Amino acid sequence: MAHIVVYVSRFILVFLFAIYTYDCFAALRSNVSLERQKRLYHRQTFIMYTILLDLNLCIYVSTNNIFIILFMLAQIVFFAICMLIYKKIYKHASYALINNMCMLMTISFAILARLDFANAIKQFVIAAVGMIATCFIPLLISKLKMWNRLKWVYAIVGILGLLVVLVVGSRVYGAKLNINLGPIAIQPSEFIKIIFVFFVAAMLYILPEEDLSKMKIDFRSHDFRVVLTATAVAAVHVLILVASKDLGGACIFLFTYIVMLYVATRKPLYLIITLAGTAVGGVLVYFLFNHVRVRVAAWQDPIATISDQGYQVAQSLFAIGTGGWFGSGLCQGMPDKIPVVSQDFIFAAISEELGAVFALCLIFVCISCLFMFFNIAMEIRDQFYKLIALGLGTLYGVQVFITLGGVTKFIPSTGVTLPLVSYGGSSLLSTIILFAIIQGLYCKQFDTTQNQDNM
């Protein structure tokens, strides 16, 4: 009986998630009426709860663990409260971001419950505490006006936080990532990356917009000194991460700064210089750190090194390949063969048991979130908040790209989690904060536009 339920549910899940994904992009079209948007978002909410029920039913019939049912009920209550908070307290909140955040966590809780039920409970508790703790962030972002005056506070807090990890942090697979506070391990870089975006925005928002065709840089100007200072502080962040061997984090910080710098200055020469410096730095890191060379070797030919450094990537590729289009079915695969599967390689577990179509829909949901971030950034008129929305969107997009690229052997693996899906309290909490800030910017822009229309 369990095999029949799981077999049938594979196709139901793919069908429902495909509709949900289509609605993500259909609601973003410029010619869609507000009434049509609301209907799409309500349908998404219904689909999300249906997928939640289907996933947990599959796990229950496969494990006969009654606590799965209780866990499912707790999730339903949790998501209902999340939606109630944002839709009632913030009447102009983005339904698209709320739905996508809840959908990604739904998938996360189900996959983690299948892999390790204890980890799923921990992830759920962190999500519940995080939602309660961050529900006022949109109000703070939209109402307080001092965020652009704290640039050196952001810089000092960020650098000191990374230095503490470098000095006293615990090693995780060769990199210094966490600070252990008794039974709790915190990864400060997950939160500092958000502070870093605020620092860069506070430094660069005062620069005047330039013609895209201008390549000339005046080395005596005030603008150049501001850019040089911001670049120096950003480089300190990146170098500390490199010294801690947190190369995934260093890449996220670096590419976020490059994008924000180019958008703020509109000078292609800055883009060329920073990209050239990044390429040189990448070569130096390759020759300086042995574990980088090991990961590159595993990326180049994981099958040839499957008995050693290539084992993780090879098992990931096997899992994705054996899952096929519709997956082997929840609890019917062997994702446990992949080391650190619940964190860095959770996408491979999803692909194996839920199928390539479901995994592709997951990617497109992440892309729709990225589109929302950038749409909000383009609509904001205040340059400071525009840069924050752009920077947070870039953070999210780069992290998703690095994670999926490592799992699928598109780029070398760097040990980065998939936001809202992978196991990890710091990653989950920082992403919830990121989404809350974006919600605050969305509400702020909506209120500003409405006030201007009423004048």
Integer average pLDDT: 86
Radius of gyration (Å)? 22 Å
Q: Give the strand order, joined by hyphens, for the main sheet.
A: 1-2-3
The major β-sheet equals:
3 strands, antiparallel
Helix content class:
over 70%
Termini distance? 65 Å
Helix and strand composition category: mainly alpha
Tally of individual helices: 17
Strand tally, please?
3
Low-confidence stretches: 209-213
Element layout with pairings:
Blueprint: H1 2-26, H2 34-63, H3 67-89, H4 95-115, H5 117-134, H6 137-143, H7 151-168, E1 170-172, E2 175-181, E3 184-186, H8 189-204, H9 222-243, H10 247-265, H11 268-288, H12 290-300, H13 311-323, H14 346-354, H15 356-379, H16 383-407, H17 425-454
Antiparallel strand pairs: 1-2, 2-3
Helix pairs in contact: 1-2, 1-15, 2-3, 2-4, 3-4, 3-5, 4-5, 4-15, 5-17, 6-17, 7-8, 7-9, 8-9, 8-10, 8-16, 9-10, 10-11, 10-16, 13-14, 14-15, 15-16, 16-17
